[in-house]
Amino acid sequence: MKKTALTLLALAFATGLTLAQSVDDGIKFLYYQKTKSAKEAFQKVVNDKPKDAYAIYWLGQAFLEDDDIAAAKALYQKALTDGVNEPWIWLGMGHVETLEHADINTVKQKFEQAITATTATKGKNKGNPDPAILTAIGRAFADGSSKTGDPQYAIDKLKKAVELDTKSPEPYIYMGICYLKLGGDRGGEAVEAFREATVRVPNYAAGFFRIGYIYQSQNNTEAMNEWYGKAIAADPAYAPVYFAYFDFYKNRDVNAAKEFLDKYVQYADQDCKTDYFVADYLFRAGKYQESLDKGKAMESGPCKDFPQVQVLYAYNYDRLGDSVAAETAMNKFLSVAPANIVTADHYVQAAKISARFPGKEDVAAGYLNKAIDLDTSKVNQAAYANTGATIFGKANRYGRQLKWYMRALTIKGETPSEAEYYRLSKAAYDAVNASTDTAAVAELFPIADSITNAYITAFPDKPQGYSYRVLIAKKADRDSTQGLALPAIEQYNAFLMKDSVANKKVVYLNDYYLLIYYTQYVKNISKEEGYKKAIEIAGKMQGLYPDAASEENKFATQTKNQLQSALDRYEKSQQQSGGRSNGAGK
């Protein structure tokens, strides 16, 4: 079996060995994410040796790195048709099928066949599988989203690979990625795997970069800078770290983004992707027409079939206020782009563009759902859900807004901040207030009430939770006959009375609501008890404004006297009739 070039690559990093134009050279280009150069190197070998399975495998990998699944599939299928029915081709086809979401057991069967076919039958390695084959399996299942492949299966194979090959750093890189795909609390194991790659080869920048990228996804700038700095120190020519920095700063500091983009362009292949990133920077810098011109130049040249040009148009036209042109461009991109190159950001932008057209909020929501499914970062997923809430809020569809805010908090999985509770409570109020469907209000009220109660529990010294609970209850009880607001008002008043002087006006108005309820709407107590409760409340209102000359005191006193007279007449009539009637309305 042909010895893998991965170990030779590790040796090149460790010793500065200069490799001839070969498969080994192509692998090194792939390491630097220089796919154009890699494809040229691999293609040269394949042209010279059209049945070299190992070279064909790596040419296909270069196609996959360039997001061209169709080209890789065609290459591997042609090899099989031409009689190159060898383990490396099986691995390549398995990789393609993994990205196409084929039956995972069928894919693993191909991988197991490759392992069996390359297991040593004699010598000191007798009975051991080829670590290069195991590493390629790990590479396949490390590719794609968290829903692609079988990362645990790959980890098991990669653990065996690092036992058998004690020099190559690649197995640890794929192992770390697979740990991340497993999610949960496996991030620490991912960091350790990436670190082990740098232990094997100290100037292996990819290991440091991968650790930094984890911290970037967590918005931990300090740790990100530490590990990205180590990557640059290990190998200043490692272009991916500069692009990661550009990606980080492009929406934060356009000048810093430009510095890192220049570094990326210096070390990266000069290809359509590089041109696109330059055009993207022009957009971020507010140079929309220059960005459009760059895109048009790409479209009229070798990059005419580069799908992301349409994304460029969509972003710029949207910023220039031409929503129709923006939507047309984005729809074209989504219709022609292979699924594996469509990112969460693309779907988010598609959602924002769709939302500019009244009535297309549900279309926007569909795009946001795709973004959430595609992204593995909880921070990003929550941000997308909040974007959905904003879209529905602007459309005055408050019930949907509330659901998206709640989804964002569920994704986040942490105790909401005060700002989040406030936003959620307001959305709940707006949803109840806007609904004209009695059944819908009855369904919404318990949810909204639980939200404000949670707000109060989390921040008992803040007034907003109490006030929103009262407002929601009043709106849910449109005719005031259910008494939904009573517990909320009593709770709010107890809070406000901690500073009765400052809050007496609000307490007075709350008491007025209770006064009306007990005199006109109460049903669960007798009319006599209703009068007594109302008289008690009127007395409290007097106490809030003890100055007999104030309008508030006069109203409370007059109302209390009138209620007392009404109660006296009622009790006298009941004594004369010899009976009592239950219910305030009888």
Automatic annotation (TrEMBL):
TPR repeats: 205-238
Tagged with keyword Phosphoprotein: no
Chain segments carrying region Disordered: 566-586
Signal peptide stretch: 1-20
Protein's UniProt keywords contain Ubl conjugation: no
Keywords tagged on the record: Signal, TPR repeat
Listed InterPro entries: TPR-like_helical_dom_sf (IPR011990), TPR_rpt (IPR019734)
Protein name: Uncharacterized protein
Family annotation (SMART domains): TPR (SM00028)
Gene3D superfamilies in UniProt: Tetratricopeptide repeat domain
